[in-house]
Design a protein that fits this description.
- By secondary structure, the chain is an alpha/beta fold.
- Helix content is about 45%, strand content about 15%.
- The protein has 19 helices and 15 strands.
- The chain has a 6-stranded mixed β-sheet with strand order 11-12-13-9-14-15, with helices on both faces. It has a 4-stranded mixed β-sheet with strand order 6-10-7-8.
- The longest helix is centred in the N-terminal third of the chain and has 30 residues.
- The protein starts with about 25 loop residues before the first helix and ends in a 9-residue tail after the last helix.
Length: about 575
């Protein structure tokens, strides 16, 4: 059964992948934190979920393997509902994998191993029963294989023998709950000698009445599971804790009690030797597989939790069809920004957009007004790509997607005073780092890059980068206020040879005429192919801040600085 430890719910047999090709600040640029919170069924799984999202799986077989497992769990609600109970048992089991460093190791290790085997048996039996109850409804290779492994263990003769013997072992280990001590007194009634009289399976409790000073210990209830003393019950937990951490124990603090503890440990150890010999036949049972499954099960439960939360808001979540990486396809219908949706405390309309990366356009030059949804659109695509390659559902009504081997973000940042080259120099360095790693199968997301310099320099630098991306054949989005860049796409597409066609995308606005005759550009947050708006966004800014020609001339007339129309 040792080969069982190689099983994974995330990777098919013989498959592993640890790619980690991201820009260094990708998590902040794409706002990954909210998604991680929603994906983690418990904060303890946040680091493992972050690691999974940070690994861009490009192997289609791995992605589909995960999709199948997730689909099985979503289709069998009873199984998914009971899996959190399995997680709790695995967490207990995981605690036994960290062996402590005790003063009396043999005794403690025996008790420790019995506890580990108890959790191991409970977990195996629970998983076997849950997976078997689903029957033929299970379709995923991962869960079917897990059920097979659990069945092999459950049917193993040694495991069945362990199930029979374990209750007795537990009783013999945990059944000793108290000891009876005999103490000799001197003529001044001071304790001078002590001995262990017996090891009991009943606990002592302290007396509530000191007048029972000369009474005899008696059972304090009808069940006979505790002895009542004739004095208050004093705790020795502090001394046990000191022993656990190998702290020096000074016998002068308890001249009689500490030697008795040592005697007790020796007696209990001798009584446990038969158990130790019995445990040797179960060394083949390893907790490694079950412990490894903990974060994997939590990952799928997090994916289900994420789906339910968004579906409850009336938003779609869909398993994408995964296409070969060489196809460089990303077709998303009704894509919305999952981070923005998760921030909503109350159901609110979320704008969705269609995305078409294919031979008709692989590099988007995205222009439009400020706060028109350009950054939200870029982040939506980046987050959807990450979710797809993790094997999870994506925030869209339908999706056909090829994996990418890297996601590289370049968002505008504030100037770092510690960088001698200044903000532009820092931006240029980050762009260089991107192209030192990117391939034609990467995704590059640029947001207001080179906005820190003059319009002339920005346009030159941006055009150079777009030309390079076309030559490389990469998928990319460049959100910018450089409308001249978007207006020049025909020249860019013919200037250099390349497989990535450059197209213009715009953040759509609707022009509305106000009662005073002014034309106002209303944001729709819809991103569509189209020519750059040119002056439309500037007209909106002028009206919004009251600096259009009509607004300013009206104000000057009111101030009597220019003649009125009648004059």
């Amino acid at each position: 059964m040792n080969n069982v430890t190689e099983f994974s719910l995330l990777f098919p047999s013989g498959k592993q992948q640890t790619n980690n090709h991201f820009a260094h600040n990708w998590a902040g640029d794409l706002h990954i934190e909210g998604l991680l919170d929603a994906l983690s069924v418990d904060p303890i799984y946040r680091p493992s979920n972050h690691a999974l999202l940070s690994t861009l799986v490009t192997d289609i077989e791995i992605i589909r393997y995960r999709q199948d497992v997730l689909r099985d769990l979503m289709s069998n609600e009873k199984l998914a509902t009971r899996l959190p109970e399995v997680l709790e048992v695995i967490q207990t089991l995981k605690g036994y994998t960290h062996i402590g460093n005790w003063r009396e190791p043999q005794l403690r290790l025996i008790a420790w191993r019995v506890g580990e085997l108890e959790s191991f048996v409970n977990c195996v039996v629970m998983l076997h029963e849950l997976l078997s109850a689903v029957g033929e409804k299970l379709q995923s290779t991962g869960l079917v294989q897990l059920r097979k492994f659990m069945s092999v263990i459950v049917q193993d003769e040694t495991f069945q023998k362990l199930q029979l013997e374990l209750p007795d072992m537990i009783q013999r280990i945990r059944g000793n709950t108290s000891v009876t001590i005999g103490v000799n007194l001197n003529d001044r009634l001071q304790p001078v000698e002590a001995t262990l009289l017996s090891v009991n399976q009943e606990k002592f409790t302290g007396s509530r009445f000191m007048f029972r000073l000369f009474g005899k210990p008696r059972l304090n209830n009808q069940d006979g599971d505790e002895y009542e003393g004739i004095s208050p019950l004093h705790s020795a937990i502090r001394i046990f804790q000191e022993q656990s951490f190998k702290a020096p124990i000074h016998e002068k603090e308890s001249p009689l009690l500490i030697p008795l503890f040592r005697d007790l440990a020796e007696i209990l150890e001798q009584s446990c030797k038969p158990i130790a010999r019995a445990l040797q036949q179960y060394t083949g049972f390893s907790s490694a597989l079950l412990v490894r499954l903990e974060s994997e099960i939590a990952f799928y439960l997090g994916g289900i939790q994420l789906n339910k939360r968004l579906l409850a808001m009336g938003l779609p979540m869909v398993q994408p069809e995964v296409l070969p990486i060489a196809d460089q396809i990303c077709h998303l219908d009704g894509l919305y920004n999952i981070d923005l949706a998760l921030q909503q405390s109350n159901p609110m309309p979320i704008v969705d957009n269609d995305v078409q990366f294919d031979e008709n356009g692989q590099i988007f030059i995205l222009t439009g007004p400020n706060r028109g949804g350009k950054t939200t659109y870029i982040r939506a695509i980046g987050l959807a790509q990450i979710l797809m390659q993790a094997g999870l559902c994506v925030p869209a009504s339908s999706a056909h997607m090829s994996p990418v081997d890297g996601i590289y973000t370049h968002f505008a940042t504030t100037e770092n005073p510690e960088v001698h080259a200044g903000r532009l120099g820092e931006e240029a360095k980050r762009v260089y780092e991107i192209f030192s790693q990117a391939t034609q199968n990467s995704l590059i997301l640029l947001n207001e890059s080179f906005a820190s310099t003059s319009a002339e320099e920005s346009l030159f630098l941006a055009r150079e980068i777009v030309l390079v991306m076309r030559v490389l054949g990469v998928r990319a989005i460049f959100a910018t206020h450089l409308h001249e860049l978007a207006a020049d796409i025909e020249s860019i597409n013919t200037e250099v040879d390349g497989t990535s066609r450059v197209i213009s995308m715009v953040s759509l606005v609707e022009m509305e005429e106000q009662e005073n005759g002014e034309v106002y550009a209303k944001r729709t947050f819809k991103i569509v192919p189209g020519e750059p708006m040119g002056q439309s966004y500037a007209r909106e800014i002028a009206v919004r801040y009251g600096i259009s020609f009509r607004q300013l001339t009206d104000m000057l007339r009111q101030r009597q600085q220019i003649p009125t129309k009648s004059d």
